[in-house]
Amino acid sequence: MPYDRIQLASASPRRSQLLRQIGVAHEVRAVDLDESRLAGESPRDYVLRLARAGLTPSDLSGLIVTHEHGDHGDGVFPLARRLGLPVWLTHGTLAALRESAGGVDDECSIELIDSHRAFAVGDLMVQPFTVPHDAREPVQFVLSDGARRLGVLTDTGRSTTSIESSLSGCDALVLECNYDSSMLERGPYPQALKARIASRLGHLDNDCSAALLGRLDCSRLKHVIAAHLSTTNNTPERARSALAGALGCGPEWITVATQNEGFGWRDLD
Ligand SMILES: [Zn+2]
Ligand SMILES: [Zn+2]
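Above: inputs. Below: predicted complex with zinc ion.
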């Protein structure tokens, strides 16, 4: 087969196994989630990911941005421009993006949000809440159609009472499980990066995420997705087992979102 060198943007072990089976020499390079390291998703890649989820760009109402770090803010304005979508974000996130390499496209429709005030996106109400994270004005969100609530929490160094009251009583949760503390400690990262990740303004480890989950009202909870996992400092099994431990359920009940595929649709009815 005539080929020179190709890159597959995939972390799938199955894909790697298939390549091995057909005798294609390859190497797997780790791509991590630390914000400073990831280039933003291109509009094309984003649309391809939507297609895998059975959506087209016309199904989108807008882009809601949590904070300016590269794994969240890069690519937002090129995508908004390409698809003609409004962008919702805090004043601080907008200011920080203006200073970033990608900048801000002022031709796009920009909707500034108050980090404590709910806003509407189509039929959905979106309630922001603030989080301790080393960004300018970071927020996370609870989305609701009036009957059901989806809570999303990534990129927070610690839990807070305000985070927990926002996420209590949700029907579904996406929860950061960024690292396993022993893996981070023993892992290859430079000391300064380890300290940043583990700091009060860094990321949630599996145990903190599980402890947070254990303090929530979970009486309506039907889905839990572990998200924002480091590929260097965590494993899906560790994240799953920590969250399952907090709920007293089997680990198979917890879904783990991956960098390339995200996770499949969930029905909240
Ligand atoms: Zn992030
Ligand atoms: Zn971040």
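The longest helix spans residues 236-247.
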